[in-house]
Structures are given as structure tokens and as C-alpha cells.
Design goal:
Strand content: under 5%
Protein name: Helix-turn-helix transcriptional regulator
Number of strands: 0
Pfam family, one: HTH_3
Distance between the termini: 35 Å
Organism: Romboutsia faecis
Largest sheet: none
Number of helices: 4
Structural class: mainly alpha
Keywords: DNA-binding
């Protein structure tokens, strides 16, 4: 899927998707859920929680 398609489906700016892909942005729970729904996967399948201690 192209970034522009995902942008339209989850209603965010393209820059947001670019930052997500590069690990420079933590999505809101709603955005994470919306993206997971688009790809029919769980949030855990898409995102990895790293405890920064």
C-alpha cells in the first residue's frame, strides 16, 4: 500500500506516516487502532513497545 492510500484511510498527514515508518513518532491509540484495522492485524503486530529506562 502506498503512503497516500494509508493517509486517506486513517485521515492523517503524509508526514505522520513517514515519521511512524522511521520510528520518530509514537501514534495515539486511536491512530494505532485505525492503522491496525486497515491491515486487519492487531496493534501488537504493527508496533513494538520499548521501555526506555
Amino acid at each position: 500500500m502506498k503512503q497516500n492510500e494509508l493517509v486517506k484511510l486513517v485521515d492523517v498527514r503524509r508526514e505522520t506516516i513517514v515519521h511512524l515508518e522511521n520510528g520518530r513518532y509514537n501514534p495515539s491509540l486511536k491512530l494505532a487502532m485505525d492503522i491496525a484495522k486497515v491491515f486487519d492485524v492487531t496493534i501488537e503486530d504493527l508496533f513494538k513497545f520499548l521501555d526506555e529506562e
